[in-house]
Amino acid sequence: MLLGDGDGFIHCDCGERHWGLHGAAGLLLSTEDRGVLLQHRAGWTHHGETWALPGGAVRSDETPAAAAIRETWEETAVPPEAVALRASLVHEHGSWRYTTVLATLTTNVEPHSANDESLAVDWVEPSEVEDYPLHRDFAASWPALRDQLGRQLVLVVDAANVVGSRPDGWWRDRAGAALRLRDRLSLLGPAGIPAADAGLNGLVGWRWWPRVLLVVEGKASATPAAPGVEVITARADGDTAIVETAEAARNERPRDHVVVVTADRELKERVRAVGAVVAGPSALLTALDALEPAGGA
Question: Which of the four pLDDT bands, split at 50, 70 and 90, describes residue 65?
């Protein structure tokens, strides 16, 4: 076998031998009606004859998410443009790491074994996954992955409160400040955000690609939407619009993580009452700082 960038075994500090000089990644692809996509690994592969996720070694010039999508395309013929990222979980093994990337399909495609690394690829109901002879590491991580399956992070951003949290002259141009925040939030589309920076402190090792809802009011009311950022204009009271937005998101998809970014004490209590989580502007802005100018995750 001709080895490519990132291919090869590494002797990890944990005492095991792992594939992927820069780590490895797999794609946990799911749909509501078909379940999760599993790969029956060929016998000649590492831990062959088991069921796990399509994936492989991360190249030196790509993110784990990009690697998981690329490897899945090579192994199952699911095109990258059909994949919508939702979240990822990093499994640290000492000097090596494996990233499981959770995603959904944006179009109706039919995966199939596209190279000799797979004996088969099948859609499996989540309740039946544990009935398969699973790769040991996938079996160990499956309970945590299943708990987040199908969920999305919905980030409701209080524009006025967030732009007002830093003394950068926003009061002289509130409309411009909202536009700048919108443009920075659009970076979360390709990069995602660590769970802790989004107020999800209990999800250690997780990263989320959120649906971003930016709530604007007053002089910022004319702010248009941008790729990856939906803009909601408050009809009158901005706080009420934020509460209504959070409540609507919770009602539409009750299992989603709905997070409101604000430092307003009264608003925090109101959104918690409708089932949302609260994150502070500082954590969000710090996460956005980390994406500029290079970006990526």
Answer: very high
Q: How many structural domains does the chain have?
A: 2
Q: Is the model's pLDDT at 2 over the cut of 60?
A: no
| Domain of residue 76, CATH code | 3.90.79.10
* One domain for residues 127 and 172: no
Q: What are phi and psi of 71, to 5 degrees?
A: -65, -40
Whether residue 178 is predicted with pLDDT greater than 90 in this model: the reply is yes
Q: State the residue range of the domain holding 218.
A: 153-290
Same domain for 164 and 94: no
Whether pLDDT at 12 is above 70: no
Same domain, 193 and 262: yes
**In one letter, which amino acid is 172?**
R
Confidence of residue 19 (pLDDT cuts 50, 70, 90): low
Read off the pTM. Answer: 0.89
Please indicate, yes or no, whether residues 91 and 200 belong to a single structural domain of this protein.
Answer: no
